[in-house]
Amino acid sequence: MDRSLRNVLVVSLGFLLLFTAYGGLQNLQSSLYREEGLGVTVLSALYGAVLLSSMLLPPLLIRTLGCKWTIVASMACYVTFSLGNFYASWYTLIPTSVLLGLGAAPLWSAHCTYLTVTGNAHAEKAGKRGQDVVNQYFGIFFLIFQSSGVWGNLISSLVFGQTPTQDAVPEEHLLSCGASDCLMATAPANSTQRPAQELIYTLLGIYTGSGILAILLVALFLEPLREDLLEREGETPSVRSTLLQTFKLLRDKRLRLLVLLPMYSGFQQAFLAGEYTRSYATCSLGIHFVGYVMICFSATNALCSLLYGKASQYTGRIALYAFGAVTHLSCIVALLLWKPKPDQLAVFFVFSGLWGMADAVWQTQNNALYGVLFDQTKEAAFANYRLWEALGFVIAFGYSTFLCVSVKLYILLGTLCLAMLGYAVVEHLEARDPAGPHDVEVTTLAAGREAQT
């Protein structure tokens, strides 16, 4: 096997093991730690740290440690979060969630840099186009990585499924599920009680072991990048230059109009991980069903991401955005009206599947849109994207303990409508004047980027 392909597989399998643990654990936070809103507060702190990390840490760590050891160090931050769950409290989960958040942005930046540099180096050696090889390597990575959502959630459901058969959920308890849930005001019934502590420890042991395996795999088998290859790609931008470029790009009218798109992406992902898993699935079915419901979301999301990448060549991005908006709009209205009950099992999976179909639009098309519109200032554009998406997570998890689910759905509805309105204006500007005055505003940034590379 080619050495560069072997390194791509090592990185991909490392991320698969790491996010099998983290993805499953994230989906259970709001259900496992409902007391005083600990679970959603943990997630809010986590994404607040991601926000800060995105702006400050990646260039610094990659220059200091190199890509390989930045990945290893960042993975260790994820494992500390699993360890913190063994002794779950405000004093263990908040610090470890912040540590995980600080490690998230360097992890992804180092991984993207590693695959890009490796792909370009292999393309030069093989006489191929660098873009083609890099795209191939990212395709292999995401094909393997996306399955982590299936495995992590399957493990949690199989472990928690060992709980003895539970009594039927009282009708009065079901009245407080779904959109009617106002901070779980009623006493929890059997379906929302925590699983036995031994089962929680078993699950955490599996997740921690998976994270440690990921660290060992990358540390032992991933080859570090050669210095000459990194230099050929251009100098890693400094923290100061990254910050300046990120905020200067906000002078572009198109970027200001698109701010709500990444924020909505954060809102809707936070709603699924926080409210849907707790107020719909756990409240009506029990915590052992959360994993199965989220498997449906992950599998649909992965398949549709692959499908949309090919379909966009024929339909264009406007049709896909319209499909995603209509799908989420329909789901939000239906979730406002639906009264979840245990005998409606299929409906829980229908909602998570539809949510995954729409989420795949935001994940694939938002990144493509930012890359096309801000081609000369990609680093600053994607830093802005990460910043606003992380802010969406922070706000959504922050108000999670104060608002009823129905209010959160109305917030989602309003944000979606405004985000689509801003997007429509941008498409109108591009159609009317694709190389108009609004492009001139970023000329200085483009020149600065070219000077650096």
Describe this structure in words.
With 453 residues, the chain is mostly helical. The protein is 78% helix and 0% strand. The protein is built from 17 helices and no strands. The longest helix has 47 residues, at 38-84.
Task: Provide key terms for this protein.
single chain, 453 residues, mainly alpha, 78% helix, globular
Q: What class do helices, strands and sheet pairing give?
A: mainly alpha
Name the assembly state: single chain
Beta-strand content? under 5%
Annotation, overall tally of beta strands: 0
End-to-end Cα distance: 32 Å
H/E element sequence? HHHHHHHHHHHHHHHHH
Radius of gyration: 22 Å
Mean pLDDT: 82
C-alpha geometry: globular
The stretches of 5 or more residues where confidence is low (pLDDT under 50) are: 185-192, 436-453
Number of helices: 17
Largest sheet: none
Q: Helical content, roughly?
A: over 70%
Blueprint of the fold:
Blueprint: H1 3-32, H2 38-84, H3 90-126, H4 130-145, H5 148-160, H6 171-174, H7 197-221, H8 227-233, H9 239-248, H10 253-257, H11 260-285, H12 290-315, H13 317-337, H14 345-373, H15 378-398, H16 405-432, H17 443-452
Helix pairs in contact: 1-2, 1-4, 1-5, 1-7, 1-11, 2-3, 2-7, 2-9, 2-15, 3-4, 5-7, 5-12, 9-15, 11-14, 11-15, 11-16, 12-13, 12-14, 13-14, 13-16
